[in-house]
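**User:**
Everyone, produce one record:

**Assistant:**
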Amino acid sequence: AQGVDIESLGGMTPDPSSNVTTILQLISGATGIPTRILIGSERGELASSQDETAWLGRIDERRVNFVEPNIIRPLLARLMELGVIPSSTDYRVEWEQDDGLGEKVKAEIGEIKARALSHYANSMDAARIVPEREFREVVLGLEPEPDGGFPEELPDIEPEPLSPDEQGIIDNACNYDHGDGLTSFERKALELLGKDESE
């Protein structure tokens, strides 16, 4: 229109990232869920081993301190009261064992233990300072050595006797075929190879 100046008013869209980050941090702090695990691999970043360890520890704590006393045991008590399951007071709630360590951390610990064992085995006076039994249990975290020690050799195990049918199959397979001097096993092998018996 004549005599009218039109001016474009630019709109400024505020950046919500700072507010989103603050809210996520508040949620993470309130729930105990590490931020990287809470939002996932948003930018291709995987949760660090510390985050994973903290989260697994949080899950284990939740199982023991809340889920078992407030959910599982009251449910079992109610089912026993209704006669759905046999009544018993001698039971234990077992969870899948998890030490809270990620696969990467476990691999690193295994490498460190293997290196420690190598140094221990190659040190002449190491056993005088730290006895082998103590090194095995404390440093390597293995089961205690039996009082009588580990057997040097495994005991011989006698094979179970064959049944008459099984023995008959073996005897029949090992019998020579009259005329060519080949066992049944050898004849079958030649058939599979596609060779003539005279070759």
Observations:
- The helical segments are 17-31, 35-39, 49-81, 103-122, 126-129, 132-139, 164-174, 184-193.
- The mean pLDDT is 76.
- The two ends are 107 Å apart (CA to CA).
